[in-house]
Write a structure and sequence with these properties.
The chain has 172 residues and is mostly beta strands. The protein has one domain: Immunoglobulin-like, CATH 2.60.40. The chain contains 1 helix and 12 strands, in the order αββββββββββββ. The strands form 3 sheets. Strands 1, 3, 6, 10 and 12 form a 5-stranded antiparallel β-sheet that branches.
Length: 172
């Protein structure tokens, strides 16, 4: 009887272990949605003997992308000078036109260099931090740049042949 009872207990233990499937699950947890887009804008073109005193442009925002607002205005942390405009550059208050229906939102960005000699190279000029909603994951091509004006330090006139574009977008 002892031998029989021992066989039953061992068989029961073996069946219990064999029935354990490892606890796997078919539920897939998606990664958390990105909430911030960091957009870098750069100038390109040939300066020649010109030096840059400042630049302005309009950045069109894709759907579900907006700037942070403080007291009804674009927060001062949204547009920061970077790259060739880092240090000695100020950013004017940024007018924002929110999206309405099929019309996208827009930011009007103006940066001015306070160094008398100006900026002598083209390249990155600003970093823009934007908020994402509803799973938005825009690429650089989703941010058209228009109405670009680059101002010369000497006569204060526009520098011909200059353009601006979004060169990178980092989603976080």
């Amino acid at each position: 009887m002892k031998k029989y009872l021992l066989n039953v207990i061992l068989s029961f233990a073996l069946l219990t272990l064999a029935a354990c499937g490892g606890g796997g699950s078919d539920i897939v947890v998606p990664p958390p949605a990105k909430t911030t887009a960091t957009v870098k804008v750069s100038l390109s073109g040939t300066l020649g003997a010109d030096t840059i005193a400042g630049a302005s442009f309009i950045l069109t925002l894709p759907a579900n992308v907006t700037p942070a607002m403080t007291g009804g205005a674009v927060a001062t942390s949204v547009v920061m000078p970077s790259g060739t405009f880092a240090g000695g550059t100020s950013v004017a208050p940024v007018p924002y036109t929110p999206a309405v229906g099929a019309t996208p939102g827009k930011l009007e960005i103006t940066v001015a260099n306070s160094v008398p000699a100006g900026v002598t190279t083209v390249g990155e000029i600003v970093t823009i931090t934007l908020q994402l909603a509803n799973g938005a994951a825009p690429a650089a091509a989703a941010f058209p740049v228009s109405s670009v004006s680059v101002i010369n330090t000497a006569p204060g006139a526009a520098i011909a042949g200059m353009s601006a574009s979004v060169t990178s977008v980092t989603l976080q």
